[in-house]
Amino acid sequence: MTAKTFIIDKPSKPLVDLVNKLRAMKIEKLEEMKGKKDSCLKIKIA
Is 23 helix (H, G, I), strand (E, B) or coil? Predict the structure, then answer.
C-alpha cells in the first residue's frame, strides 16, 4: 500500500469536517483492534 499526500491551500469547512471524521474513525478502529488483540484465547496443549 502506498500513501500519497495531497496539499489543499484553502480547504472548505465540510472537507475539514470529513477529514476529521475519517481520522476519528481510523483511531477508533485501531483501538478496537488493539482491544481484540489483548483478549485473544490462550490455548496450552500438553
Answer: helix
Question: Cell for 3?
Answer: 500513501
Residue 13 CA: distances (Å) to CA of 17, 18, 31, 38: 6, 9, 27, 38
Tell me the C-alpha to C-alpha distance, in Å, between residue 1 and each of 4, 29, 33, 39. Answer: 10, 18, 19, 28
At 34 the pLDDT is 77
User: pLDDT by residue (tens digit) across 13-27?
Assistant: 999 999 999 999 999
pLDDT of 40 above 70:
no
What is the chain's alpha carbon radius of gyration, rounded to the nearest angstrom? 18
Instruction: Report the C-alpha gap between 21 and 9 in whole angstroms.
Output: 20
